[in-house]
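Please predict the structure of the following assembly.
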Amino acid sequence: MLEASGLGLSAGGHELIGALDLALAPGQCWSVLGRNGSGKTSLILALAGLRSPQAGTIALDGIALAAHRRGELARRIAVLLQDEETDFWGSVLDYVMLGRYPHSRSTWSRDGEGAALARRWLAELDLADRAAQAYRTLSGGERQRARIAQVLLQDADILLLDEPLQHLDLRHQAQVMRTLSRCASGGKTVLAALHEPGYAARHCGFAVLLYDAGRASLGRSSDMLTQANLEALYQCRLEAAGTGSFLPS
Amino acid sequence: MKTVPVLVVALVPASLALAVAFGSVDLGPAQLADALLGRGDEIAREIVWGVRAPRALAGFACGGLLALAGALLQALLRNPLADPTILGVSGGAASGALAAMLLGAAAAGVNLAALAGASIAAGAVFAFSLGRSGWNPYRVLLTGVALASGFGALVGLMLSLAPSSQVQGMLFWLLGDLSPAGDPSAALVVLAACAALAFSQAAALDVLILGEDKARSLGVAVTRLQSIAFGCATLATVAAVLLGGSIGFVGLVVPHLLRLAGVHRHGVLLPLCACLGGSLLALADTLARTVVAPAELPVGVLTAMIGVPVLLVLLARLR
C-alpha cells in the first residue's frame, strides 16, 4: 500500500498539488489525468521517492519512503519516466536486462532466468524479433515499448508510469493498456499518467484528476470521467466522437 | 564479439615485448634474448631491464590510467567528448610543474608542484559540483572546462616569462613525454587499484547510463557511485599526468574504439580500456623513441597525431 497524505507539490514557483490524500492498494489500476503542466509528472516522481514533496508525507506500508533502503525500494516500486537518456550502446535485450539490476547485480553471473523473463516481456510487447538489434536503431515507439518491458522486468509490486502511451500506435496503445490492467488484476498496483480518457475509462478502475491551482479530485473512474468533469479538466468542450475516430476493440 | 576481448588482452604482452625489443640502440635478436634471460653483455642487460622495461611499463600504466579515467568520465557525464583533461587536473598539474621549473626546482620538486596543482584543480571541481543534493554533472563539465582554460592562460604566461633555455623542457612536459618517467611501480599500483575499484561499480555504471533518476529508481546509490567514480577518475588522471605530463587523446579515443567494437558493458569495457590504453601508449612511446633516434619525440604529439584522424573517422562513421 502506497499512501500519500496532505501531499503538496510545486514546480517553478507554481503550486501544482495542494493537500492531496491518495491511497494506492494492491490490485488497483489508477489513471492520472490533467492538462499539460498540471503536475502529473511531479506526482509520479514524488510517489517514486525521486523528489521530496513540499508538504505532506508518502509512506510505503506505513513507513516513510525516505526510510526505505534504495535497493529494497527498487524491488517494490518501478517507474517509467517520461524522458530518458537514449545513449545506450547495447542490444534491445541488454537494455531491457538493466531492469534486473535490483534482483541480480553481479557483473560475472549470466542471469539466465532474467534473460528468459526479459524475452517473455519483449514477446508480450511485440519486440521478440528485435532482441538482438541495437537499441539505438529502434524507432521512438519501439523504444517506448522496450522501456516498458524494462519496467515490467523489474517486477515491482507498484508500477508508476508517466505517459506509457507516448509514441505508440493504436495497436500498441491498446496492447500496453491491456498488459498494465492484467498486472493490476494479478495483484500489482498500477498508476499511469494518461492523455486518453477513453483508455482510462476502459482499463483503469480509479482516476486522479489534477485541476489548476493545486485542486485535485479522485475516485472511481465511472464517477470521475464524466463529460462535465473532463470538460472542466481540459477546459474545452467535448463531444462524442463519430466517424473517423476509433479505439481498438 | 568474443574476439575483441581476446585480441585486446593479447595486445598487452605483444606491445610490451615490442617496447622492450626496439629502441635507439639496435640489439640483435640473440643479444636481446640473452639480455632478457639475464645473461650476456652487461650493457645490453642494463638497456633492456634498466631502461626499456621500466619505460614500457610507465607507458602502459599511463595509457591504462588515462583510458580508464576517460571511460569513467564518459559514463558519469554521459558525454561522449569527456576525457581526462576536462577535469582541469592536467592543466593544474602543468601549471604547478611549470612554476616549479621556472623557480629552478629539481625533478622531485617539479613532481610535487604538479601534484599540488592537480589537487587544487580537483578540489575546486569537487567543491563547485558536489551540492547537498549530490553531484551536478553539468557543473563538473563547466568547472573543469573553465579551470582548464584558466590554467592554459597561466601556462602561456609562464612560457612567455621563462628563459629560452627552460622552454624546451616545459614544452616536452606540456606535450606529454615519458622520458623522465622513472620508476612506474607506483603508477602500476594506482592503475590496479583504480581498475579494481571501478570494476566493482561496473553494473551500477551500466544502469547510470539511463540517467540519475532512473538509476535511483533501480536501486543505485547514485551520489555514492558518482563520488567513487569521480574520485577514481581523478586519481587515475593525477597518477598519469605525474608520470607522463599531458598526454592527449588516449582517454578520449580508447573507450570509443571499444564501444564501436561492440563492448559496452562496463564490466568488460573498463578492464579492456586499461589494457588497450596501456598497450597503445606503450606502442606509441616505442615509436616516439625510435623514429628520430637518437633524438626523441614527445609521445603526446604522436598520440594526438594518431588520435585526431582516428576520432574523425569514428565521428564520420557515427553520422
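Chain A is about 35% helix and 25% strand. Residues 2-91+159-234 of chain A form a domain with the Rossmann fold fold (CATH 3.40.50.300).
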